[in-house]
Amino acid sequence: KNWDPDVREDMEAFLTELVPESTPFRHSCEGPDDMPAHIKSCFLGSHLTIPITDGQLNLGSWQGVWLCEHRNRAGSRKMMVTINGALRD
C-alpha cells in the first residue's frame, strides 16, 4: 500500500509498540534505540529483489519500496544496487 501514507505511519507505530525502547535489553551500550533497531530490521529484512521489465521496476499497482531507519540519530547509510540479468539484442 505505497499510495497511502497512513500505512507507513501505522507500520511505524506497530513496530514501536512491538519493540519499545523502554525494554531492558542487555545490549544497550549504543543507546536505547539500538537493540530495537536490530529487531525491527529482522522483521523487515535488509535486502530486496525487484524484477526490472523494459528498464522499469516491475512493481504492482499498490507496491513501493521503503527505506527504513530505525535509529533515532543514525549515521550515514549506503545503499548498494546489484543488477543481474542479460542485455537483449
UniProtKB/TrEMBL annotation:
Classification via Pfam families: YjbQ
InterPro entries named in the record: UPF0047_YjbQ-like (IPR001602), YjbQ-like_sf (IPR035917)
Recorded family membership: Belongs to the UPF0047 family.
Protein name: UPF0047 protein yjbQ-like
